[in-house]
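Notebook p. 47: complex prediction with cytidine-5'-monophosphate.
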Amino acid sequence: MSKIQNPLIVALDVPTAAQAREIFDELSETGCAFKIGMQLFTHAGSQFVGELVKAGAKIFLDLKFHDIPNTVANAGVEAARLGVWMFNVHAFGGREMMERTVAAVRETAVRENLIQPKIIAVTVLTSSKAETLREVGVDNDPLTQVLKLAQLAAISGLDGVVASPQEASAIKIEAKNWKTENHAPNDFLIVTPGIRFESETQNPKSKIERDDQKRTLSPAQAIKAGADYLVVGRPILQAANKQKAADEILAEIISPTEYD
Ligand code: C5P
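Predicted complex, structure tokens below:
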């Protein structure tokens, strides 16, 4: 396997900075990244993001920007100034929105000597079914729409997409045909949530709620399907020993010595 990055992103899906700090302290040694989403961000704010970045955390800021091009580009610039490693936008915002965000972030990063964050796209939320798409005037089935938006993200210069395990393999295959200026086809990143230990998925009494993750894969299966990064929340957050759970996920994929 040629992957050299540590592929684990732990979702800090907790309501307070104190709880998030505790998780970071427990897991920072593993070299994983951390995802801060709307709940924690709305509660603890950008100061807290800055605090973790200063402490050495790789942060995926999961705020799913979707607005007019100028507003998203400016928000992206602020994410870069905060020092996050990755942030995301909705591909449904369109090509101009994505292109202007990539350009503004790149230009600011060069001018202000910042590390350029990876910018990835949300295509169709996994909570959306064909019926949800029809309600908002989209007649494509979800997978067709996912592929259409993933291609749009790629040609707009984004670094990758968030995709369910089932979508990951289809995107990996299709991405080989997408001509982009910024990437070799194999570099288009796939960030995959919906990860569960095989033992959990087979245990009907599992304490980990997974009803809202209808389609799950084990870490190894997701990597095999084409995922470059795995977003994991409850399987780690609800474990008695979080570090052990994170280590088990890494060990399931590849020997930890192969990660940087
Ligand atoms: O606890 P669990 O492992 O299900 O957490 C998955 C994380 O990934 C959550 O933060 C959730 O918001 C996020 N996510 C997801 N499905 C998507 C996009 C993001 O579960 N399609």
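Notes: The pocket of cytidine-5'-monophosphate is lined by residues 11, 13, 37, 125-126, 162, 164, 193-194, 213, 231-235 (CB under 6 Å). The chain has a mean pLDDT of 91.
Next step: compare against the earlier run before touching the bench.
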